[in-house]
């Protein structure tokens, strides 16, 4: 009986450690969730449709791309392809995180992959690199608040977004890039970090100016992958998906 109680206490402790990590993400992503809801209404979505899109697609950048294309009445296949282009980095994320959660049952792994957004990937990698187990309780402790608040704030944006001043004018749109920059910097001690980041960033900027959004995201990620693969490997280094996935977080 006591062992069961200790196990429950351990899971609860792991869960709340995950919750604490979710707090800065919830704060940083709030303006974007609200902005998405407001833009969705402007593009002809209902409140229910905007909320459902956040609940099912659950990808801020891809949702914004989607509603912009819906507003232009482009072909459905192009909308799907554009969203895939923005979310291509999640292929790298899943390859890296998969080895951290391969001890989970299949259903839990499927749930984990659904919630695998940028900060979730970064924190899971950091935990794994520190030699700690990525438990389901910890993972969901971080994932659930981010997801619930994202969906709820999207609904609030759809309901009241037109009452909110322009977030660009007051700098709210800068919160999430700052957070992501912090995630990228947290990997700076990895071998070859700087040249991979620079290669990915330069390719992304060139693609943004020439090809346009949202393709610059995937092109930048692919450039980082190819650059990392082409670099000579020293005997004390190992090459994995982790080395390249970090550049697009």
What can you tell me about this protein's structure?
- The protein has 249 residues and is mostly helical.
- It has a domain at 11-182.
- The protein has twelve helices and no strands.
- The chain has helices at residues 2-42, 47-56, 60-71, 76-87, 89-98, 106-114, 118-129, 136-160, 175-185, 193-210, 215-230, 241-245.
- Helix 1 packs across helix 2 and helix 3 (60-71) runs antiparallel to helix 4.
- It is globular and about 50 Å long.
- Mean pLDDT is 79; it is low at 238-249.
List the helices and strands and how they pair.
Blueprint: H1 2-42, H2 47-56, H3 60-71, H4 76-87, H5 89-98, H6 106-114, H7 118-129, H8 136-160, H9 175-185, H10 193-210, H11 215-230, H12 241-245
Helix pairs in contact: 1-2, 1-3, 1-8, 2-8, 3-4, 4-11, 5-7, 10-11
In short:
The chain has 249 residues and is mainly alpha-helical. The protein has twelve helices and no strands. 73% of the residues lie in helices and 0% in strands.
Characteristic key phrases:
mainly alpha; single chain; 73% helix; disordered C terminus; 249 residues
């Amino acid at each position: 009986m006591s062992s069961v109680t200790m196990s429950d206490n351990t899971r609860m402790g792991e869960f709340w450690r995950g919750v604490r990590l979710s707090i800065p993400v919830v704060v940083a992503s709030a303006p974007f969730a609200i902005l998405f809801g407001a833009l969705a209404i402007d593009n002809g979505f209902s409140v229910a449709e905007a909320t459902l899109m956040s609940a099912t697609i659950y990808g801020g950048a891809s949702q914004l791309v989607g509603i912009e294309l819906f507003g232009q009445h482009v072909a459905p296949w192009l909308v799907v392809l554009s969203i895939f282009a923005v979310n291509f980095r999640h292929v790298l994320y899943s390859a890296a995180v998969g080895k951290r959660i391969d001890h989970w049952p299949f259903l839990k792994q499927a749930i984990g992959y659904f919630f695998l957004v940028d900060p979730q990937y970064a924190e899971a990698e950091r935990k794994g690199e520190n030699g700690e187990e990525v438990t389901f309780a910890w993972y969901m402790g971080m994932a659930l608040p981010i997801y619930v608040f994202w969906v709820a704030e999207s609904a609030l944006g759809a309901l009241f977004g037109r009452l909110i001043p322009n977030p660009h004018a007051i700098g709210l749109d800068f919160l999430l890039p700052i957070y992501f920059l912090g995630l990228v910097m947290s990997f700076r001690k990895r071998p070859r970090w700087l040249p991979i980041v620079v290669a990915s960033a330069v390719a992304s900027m060139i693609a943004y100016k020439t090809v346009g959004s949202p393709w610059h995201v995937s092109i930048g990620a692919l450039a980082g992958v190819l650059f990392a693969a082409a670099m000579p490997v020293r005997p004390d280094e190992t090459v994995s998906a982790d080395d390249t996935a970090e550049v697009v977080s």
